[in-house]
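call fold(seq) -> tokens
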Amino acid sequence: MAGLNYVTFNQDHSLLAVATTRGLRTYTTDPFELSNHSTDHDISLVEPLFSTSLVAMILTPRLLRIVNTKRHSTICELTFHGMVVAIRMNRRRLAVVLEEIVFLYDISNMKLLHQQLTPLNPAGICAISPSSENNYLALPHYQKNVTGNAQAQPGHVPRSVAKEAISGDVLLYDLNKMEEVTVIQAHQTPLSSIAINSDGSLLATSSEKGTVIRVFSIPDGKKLYQFRRGSMPARIYSMSFNATSTLLCVSSATETVHIFKLAPPGQNPHSASHHPSNPDSSPTRETHQSDTSSTSGTTLADPDDRASDSSSPTPPTTSSNPSRNPKPNNPGLMSFVRRTSQNVIGPSSFVSRLATGGYLPASVAEMWEPQRDFAWVRIPRGNSHNSGGGGGGGGGGGGGVESNTGGSSSGYGGAGGGAGAGGGGGGGSGGLRSSVVAMPNHLAVPHVMVATSEGEFFVFTIDLERGGEGTLVKRFGFVE
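ret:
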């Protein structure tokens, strides 16, 4: 049985690439079918180039090999001085990410163009634009020593120890002009994940706390949106825009994948049309809120809510329709105390009215009324050997779910970070699972695809008008 090392989608989400201890497997995502299979090497990382036969892979920790999967031939091999923690590419550029430096190549001739220093980056946090026109690279910003004294640290301290850790700042680099563009002050806590949309115009960021997701414009770095995943910290594994950049899906160390709606310019993203109808009366919404709910005190205390407010433009105004939870018919003592406490220390409705009336700065308003997901899906537990589809409340009951009962694996540790199924977790049904998410570009009805570190592939549909919980429609296993 092959062990799962790394999982990632290609740039247009039409392929799923799986690196295993016994080689490379690539699948088409619609329909979900095995398209290529090699069994000759233990592959730790993989990066396909759209739907071509060109694939970059890491064999040993320092060896990069670029192959033609149709001809089963090696195009190029490069050996680096340190461990390769991520690889990213588009049709013009290849980025090879080591823990402290990124090597940038012209993909047409594999000429080395630039070496960019980074903070310590063992998770390989990096994103590259799929677009060759708006061709940008985003990576953690390296803060140079302000004194200019490169020998400030003691000589006996290893460089990896003396090197600075990742901050919440993102460096945006133009891969066509080969120059730095801007530094975006995204978060007050260290970065954990970044993603660029298909046309290279938007950048999504999250910090290691995982409670706040921000979206910035490229190349000017203006903050456009701020979303709240939840109040409890959770590692963000994957973020992905849809083809039209109207939706952003986010997976984390919880069982919930959140889908956020990005409003077009001039439209209030907090308006009722961007939220599920009457969400507070829905039992499924109440269940979902157990993962993402927050009190006003928790929201206000979140340092990520206050980051980049002074350096970024004012975000869209918040909604003037705060949610109102229905009162129980026979309230008990605790219900009475909770409602009384909310009336005293939970003035979100009051603050929301002040914000929409123009009495409060938008930076203050967004601390109290962050924009939440308009839809979500639950990743089922178990594996696809279990006939009948879904556990775990993901809308995946027995009926209407296409299921492949063969070839699923479970119990593997999480793969590498970045675009893969990342770094964390694995284990059996009781452990954490890492995952990578994407939304197909060619389907009229919005779909969310999820590949997990347990070797399962899920497809969910979501209601673009009403939002709410998505429905599991397909379930497959990969890696034999």
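The chain has a mean pLDDT of 76.
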